[in-house]
Amino acid sequence: AIIRADPVAAVEGVPCSREAPPLAPFSDTYASPCPAVSIDITFDSHETMDPFSCFGVDSDDDDDSNAPRNGVGLSLAERFNSKRQNPAPSTSTGLVVERSGSGGSEVASAFRSSYEDQVQRASSLIWRSRPPLYCGPIDLCRTLAEGGNRGYVASQDVPPGTLCMVEEPLVAGWSNAQMGKELGFESVRYLLENQNAREILHCMEELHPRREAVESIFNLETTEIEPIDKVQIVDMMSDMTEDCQIDSLLEYSTRKGITNSDNTNLTARDVKRLLLALRYNGFDSGLYLNFAMFNHSEDPSCTKFRPMEDGAESRRYSEARTVRHVRKGEALTISYLENPREVSHATRRKILWDQHRFDIGDEGQYRKFLDSSFNNNDRGNCIFEAELVADGVFPLSSRDGPIKNHDGDGPLTTNIEKSLDDLEDMLMELKSTPKGNGNSSYFDRTAALELTLWELATVSQSRLENKHHILLSRCRRLHLDAIELFLTECSSTLKDKQLADILLRAMPNIKLLLESQTKRLGSDHPDVARTNQDLANAIQVLLSNSPKRLLALELRGMGTLNDWSRMENRCRLEKKRNRVIVPARR
């Protein structure tokens, strides 16, 4: 049987507020080791314990009742730290690896926290009555140049895999009326209809844009308003149409006695501010308070994982962990674009402007950011080079997205992304279709999708003339997702030769995907761990069933079966090393 060795939750990005299309709910970033693939033939019987299983029930907001809640978070941290005491030694994969910021020097020992320390950390955050379940070695800085002047920084040197925060959503999910549509006033009604609406609205007054700041800005003369406030607040709220929905929401809030924290009735401006706060701060899985303080980066130091059900309980918790070494005082950031997470610079620029009203800039500004972040080291160069197309060109863009060619056609990267979007929709449709074993139509559709994705990867690499382009990583990852679905749902009708054909066709892509991800993300990233696992499992099958055909691929550096066997072993050791860094979750 084909089994996923790491049934972990996916990584989460911000709803398109942080991750969705403009004005649409954000998407939860990543499959905790990402929604990537897994062709697993064997299952590790030494599965690590689920760190979420120790969570208890919620408590009230007063300090006394927070004691058991913080104790639970502390219990989680202790179990996490116990797995970090003697990490397995790093085993080289033979690929280019650059650990940003580590410089080869030692980092601080595993972070350990007492109950008193957790209380102190929670008291330094904004919502003292709604602290996270666990707060790691992080500080909230209120003097940053970006993110509304607020954001997290590391309070000490921390290694990759460090647990930074565990939090449950203030509001879980989104209303059925909102799903599949641009973010609108339906989501504000969803807040008002919540049984804790009054508390929710009071907490949201401190989310960007803060209620106090909004009121102050609209009382200023136009010439006195800061440019960033005009763009992110005044213009955005002014563009919201005044319609009957606002009147209906105001009537509902008055009837239900839902007021602001100063006991004043809601106004049209309050309703617009709430919608804007949802847009700027929401995730696919809902609205969080403390997670909302993580700022965006083009090279994020952390990833936020989607929440998982806690056993039989319906409670949901989410965690953020570092994906590389982070120095004391360095910003702890996530990517607001995680679904998909591999998109071209031009597309990222458009989405971030449409959704958040900040501009990551053109080629010059992007290069300047990377130079300041990496000091021209290998990984920084790889991130930049992952955007280049034929002849080393960095595609032109504006806040409105990719700039068309002189003949009026869309850029090559845009066409590839559209194809990937369509194929990913087809993959999601197949995943939601009833199981396909014995169903010839399902088999044919899945086989056709796998072959189409392989062809798209092959043709795109030829057209882009850059085998490590960021869009090729997405294409290869989707190809592996299609293979996983094929092997899982159609195993009863799949012959040994067909299995070998699929894996042999995919092998060059898996190898290139691992190399690209390692160059761009570093060896400690969960995406890299998952691809190491996929490559090891594919090699294992082919060494057993089709060794001669595996050698016939004639991939560089893989001239003997011993070479393939050594690569399989290296990949498994790297996966095992990463499991120590980021303990697996059920």
TrEMBL record:
Entries under Gene3D superfamilies matching the protein: SET domain
Stretches for region Disordered: 79-101
Chain intervals with Polar residues compositional bias: 83-94
Domain SET: 136-337
Name by which UniProt lists this protein: SET domain-containing protein
